[in-house]
Amino acid sequence: MIDVRVPDEQEGTKAIVRAWLKQIGDAVAENDPLVEIETDKVTQEVSAPAAGVLSEIVLDTDAEAVPGALLGRISTDDVAATEVAPKAEAAPSVAERAVARPAPLSGDQETRLSPSVRRACLQHGIDPSRIAGTGRNGRITREDVDRLVASATVVSVGEPATAQPRQFSAQDIPHDRMRTTIAENMVRAVSEAPHVTAVFEADFSAIAAHKAALAAKGKKLSYTAYIVKAVGEAMAVAPAINGRWEKDRIAISPTIDVGVATALGEKGLVVPVVKDVASLSLEQVGAKLEDLTRRARDGKLERTDVSGGSFTISNHGVSGSLLAAPIILHQGQAAILGVGKLEKRVIVREVDGQDAILIRPMAYVTLTIDHRVVDGHQTNAWLTRFVEIIETWPSA
Questions:
Q1: 210 in catalytic set
Q2: Catalytic residue among 32, 127, 195, 371
Q3: What DSSP assignment string belongs to 187-205?
Q4: Is 40 designated active site?
Q5: Which of 60, 78, 276, 375 is catalytic?
Q6: What domains are defined for the chain?
Q7: 3-state secondary structure of 364
Q8: Each residue's pLDDT tens digit, 6-46
Q9: What is the reported pLDDT for 209?
Q10: Residue 231 burial (C-beta neighbours within 10 Å; 0-12, 13-18, 19+)
Q11: Do 223 and 210 touch, CB atoms closer than 8 A?
Q12: Cα 396 to chain center, whole Å?
């Protein structure tokens, strides 16, 4: 027997078994996708560690998957692989009672459905033609399938209907697993860490000029790339901002690993991490950000892409927000930077010894800290240095 276990690296996020891709008695080849594990950030396939027959499922769908926990077992005995007893007829699932089992998917349907959606439809006996897709161009998403399964009515033939169907209005949005996990993390974060937020504002004129000069040379960078780089430089004045609370000490991260919150529309958000920012040039930061953002929106991030962050940026201004105080979600971090909408505002500055009224591209920046780790003077020192870097960015 070969054990199939949950991967060890979970980075403190709760994981659950989303779906088994094989059933007891199914033959599997080495490295065949065997089971899907889902956290609040990514869905990961666990592959078969050896060829054989899936002989036991220990953690079934929706069970919590603790790192290292036993998921199931594979029999590698040649005799067992060819003489597995027929499986007992399983009781109909929720979706099977609500929706008739379809014929095999046609070739056209196969090409339109993602592998995850196709497996879910086959597993639950759902005809995809009955699902109204909410993805791009009406494409069926995994959340569409999960929503149908969750709202199905449990009524067995010959049994009284003891439970009424769950009623939804056209405006209701049933919880998916990502939304539920995000909610749990939010509650945990504010109950464990005392949050305090400081607000500064920054003049982005110097960065706008530098960005325009690079664009004229054919090099395009986002404002976020400058913000990430400035974060790396500002850490020198208050290293504890790049630390975390431990029972016996404040642990300072040896590298500055910056997570950048990336919205996924109605699906919530993920936080891919730019590792060791201090060792990267501005252009390298920009390239890594572009790659991570593209793969996040395509659902192709790896576990290592979203783990190990020591600090987080929420650039909420891209969606129009002027001011916000983001929550520190990651237990291994002490602070999160919020950057509001960049807009032209009238400000007063001293020019040649005289007060002058100027129009400048301004943004509010906030630093929310875990008050167990740092105090107000460190928070303000960090923000002062961060704003100074933004406002004195050298010419291109």
A1: no
A2: 371
A3: HHHHHHS-EEEEEEEEE-H
A4: no
A5: 375
A6: 2-82 (2.40.50.100), 94-177 (4.10.320.10), 193-391 (3.30.559.10)
A7: strand
A8: 887 655 457 788 788 888 888 888 888 888 887 766 667 78
A9: 96
A10: buried
A11: no
A12: 34
